[in-house]
Design brief:
Length: 593
């Protein structure tokens, strides 16, 4: 009996497990736990028969003085723990590295060129086939090595066990394996493999486990690292990462195509996941993928705070929020970028017609939105078409358009600017931002059905509305100068009068001590509203609380920056430095401010 192998864990595998857990803990969700647990079970169940065979046939062995004693099917318990901890560590590293990637946009429709819906990535079928043939060849080669019963036996046994699993995973998830950024694929394989190679070098040099002669090539990758050991760790980490990728591929299919899976559960069963993976890529909906790609690009370009926040949501709700953002952004830009206020008015009318058609008469089947799209520029079509209409209340979207209408009432000639007093300001903010908050909450409750009584849900919606107003006040405080250039002053005229300012004087000069005083007054209101509504976030479904905290705290941080002297400005707007934004997001996830 000895503790040598146990010490390998204490020194080398448990410390990274603890560090990775602490790092990922604020982001860990039930779905992540489900994924990791699922893979650990598969890893242990599939490795035990193979490892037991190897030990019984003396391919490798453990001197009795290095293990504590208890065994499972001849495998020391330390070794069984190794399968668990390796799967856990590599999975966590994968989750950390892939968190910011919105994976559904890497799905590809595969159709033959002659298909009536047009060509779409036909070459991917050949990539799949090529990989399958290569893996089949490897299986045949490894079978020959095992049969030969010579120095290639150990290599053959590793490959004959692992490659069939790789073949299955490749066949199901080749799109993600090939298409995702290497931060999601190669890096989570390479980093733990290199680490385990070093650990293995140290362990073998100390004789913790021994590969017997006659069944190995005797080649060392470096001094102390047998080629077979190096291969083993490479292959097992590849299996773990491919397993995670297959899982995520299934989730992406499930949550991206409502036409294939309408309202899938937040924790899908293994059967449902397999069904999603078996859907032929020819049935994926190209318009949906394009809509999501454009939504991600829009969010990335236009809002750093919400882009960062969006990456903390799970794929299901993240998809809906991205599409909502895309619609709101496009609608806001259509109005803001119109050449004249009459064109802007026409655009709002068209958006209203779009909503009328989209909500239409629910009984007469799905509405045909294509005819109305001709009224809009082509680069806005996907944002309009993909809006998750059936999950959102018509009232909120119509109020948002009413808010945009207020913007059109600003003009130098207009002697009655639309925001006269605090009530006007609040109503405006409620329409353009309170509605957005309410829609976000509607989407959350749709993704994570709650047993909360309707009164409770109403209370949360009201708090969300206040939070939206708070964010809009921060937005207005930040943009006083930018808005003045567009002929808009959202500070109430009664407030201006108290400082001997006028609408036109702000248009001429949106700076100075008096303006700072008013900015500060608006920020005070924003923070009061924030304080009065932030507790309601904790009552949201658990999957949404951390990410929503990130969204609102990141945006409120702009307010904190505005209160400091000499803050950084980008394109005329106060901006939160990246490091500070990340710190705020991290603290928000951890539930601190
Ligand atoms: C991660 C996440 C939550 C993403 C989605 C957010 C989303 C759908 C935002 C819509 C943004 C938008 C373009 C709306 C049009 C109207 C508008 C301009 C509103 C202002 C946003 C400003 O963003 P930005 O600075 O990029 O805009 P400009 O460059 O100035 O044009 C707003 C300030 C409103 C944003 C409000 C929210 C996102 C609501 C936040 C509150 C919640 C999510 C609910 C909190 C829940 C409780 C229970 C309190």
């Amino acid at each position: 009996m000895g503790v040598e192998y146990a010490l390998v864990h204490i020194k080398y595998t448990i410390p990274p497990a603890i560090c990775l857990t602490l790092l990922y803990r604020p982001l860990l969700t039930k779905l992540d736990a489900y994924k990791i647990g699922f893979l650990i079970i598969i890893a242990v169940v599939s490795t035990i028969p193979w490892d037991s065979y190897l030990i019984r046939n003396r391919i490798w062995s453990y001197p009795s003085h290095v293990i504590i004693g208890p065994k499972m099917f001849d495998i020391p318990l330390e070794e069984v723990f190794f399968f668990v901890v390796q799967t856990y560590n590599t999975s966590l590293l994968y989750l950390i590295l892939s968190k910011s990637t919105f994976q559904p946009i890497y799905l590809r429709v595969e159709r033959p060129c002659s298909h009536r819906l047009g060509p779409a990535n036909p070459q991917w079928r050949y990539y799949k086939l090529f990989g399958q043939l290569a893996l089949l060849a490897l299986i045949i080669l490894s079978w020959g090595m095992v049969k030969g019963n010579g120095i290639g036996t150990y290599t053959g046994l590793i490959l004959i066990w692992a490659v069939p699993f790789l073949l299955i995973l490749w066949s199901l998830a080749y799109q993600f394996i090939l298409g995702l950024p290497i931060s999601n694929t190669a890096i989570p394989i390479i980093l733990p493999t290199l680490y385990l190679w070093i650990v293995d070098t140290l362990a073998l040099q100390r004789g913790t486990w021994v590969i017997n002669t006659g069944t190995k090539f005797g080649i060392h990758l470096w001094d102390g690292l047998e080629i077979e050991e190096a291969l083993f760790f490479l292959v097992t980490n590849t299996l773990i990462v491919f397993g995670q990728l297959a899982f995520d591929n299934a989730l992406s299919v499930l949550y991206t195509f409502p036409g294939l899976f309408r309202d899938p559960p937040a924790l899908p069963s293994p059967l449902l996941l397999v069904q999603a993976l078996l859907i032929p890529a020819a049935r994926y909906e190209q318009a949906r993928i394009v809509g999501l790609r454009e939504a991600v690009a829009r969010l990335k370009k236009k809002s750093r705070s919400f882009y960062l926040a969006s990456s903390t949501f799970q794929v299901q709700i993240r998809t809906d929020l991205l599409l909502l953002y895309s619609f709101c952004r496009v609608a806001d830009d259509l109005v803001d970028n119109a050449c004249s206020s009459s064109e802007a008015n026409q655009r709002i009318e068209k958006l209203q017609q779009f909503l009328n058609t989209a909500y239409g008469d629910q009984k007469s089947g799905p509405p045909n939105l294509n005819s109305i799209l001709n009224d809009f520029p082509p680069d806005t079509h996907s944002a309009l078409l993909q809006l998750p209409i059936r999950k959102l209340s018509r009232q909120s979207l119509e109020d948002l358009l009413r808010g945009f209408q207020t913007d059109l009432l600003f003009s130098k000639k207009n002697t009655n600017p639309p925001i006269e007093n605090s009530c006007d300001l609040e109503l405006y903010a409620c329409r353009v931002a309170g509605t957005v908050a309410q829609m976000c909450i509607e989407l959350i409750f749709h993704s994570y059905p709650s047993s909360m009584a309707p009164e409770g849900q109403c209370r949360i919606l009201e708090a969300g509305n206040r939070m939206g107003i708070a964010l809009q006040y921060v937005n207005i405080s930040r943009d006083i100068g930018v808005d003045a250039k567009m002929g808009r002053v959202y500070l109430p005229t009664t407030w201006l009068a108290q400082e001997n300012l006028t609408f036109n004087s702000i248009l001429r000069n949106p700076r100075g001590k008096k303006v700072e005083k008013l900015r500060s007054r608006l920020l005070d209101r924003a923070f009061t509203l924030y304080q009065s509504s932030r507790d309601a976030i904790e009552e949201l479904p658990i999957e949404a609380t951390g990410p929503i905290r990130v969204a609102v705290q990141s945006y409120m941080e702009i307010g904190h920056v505005l209160r400091q002297e000499g803050y950084a400005v980008k394109a005329g707007r106060a901006t939160v430095p990246k490091g500070r934004r990340l710190m705020v997001a991290w603290m928000a996830l951890a539930g601190r401010e």
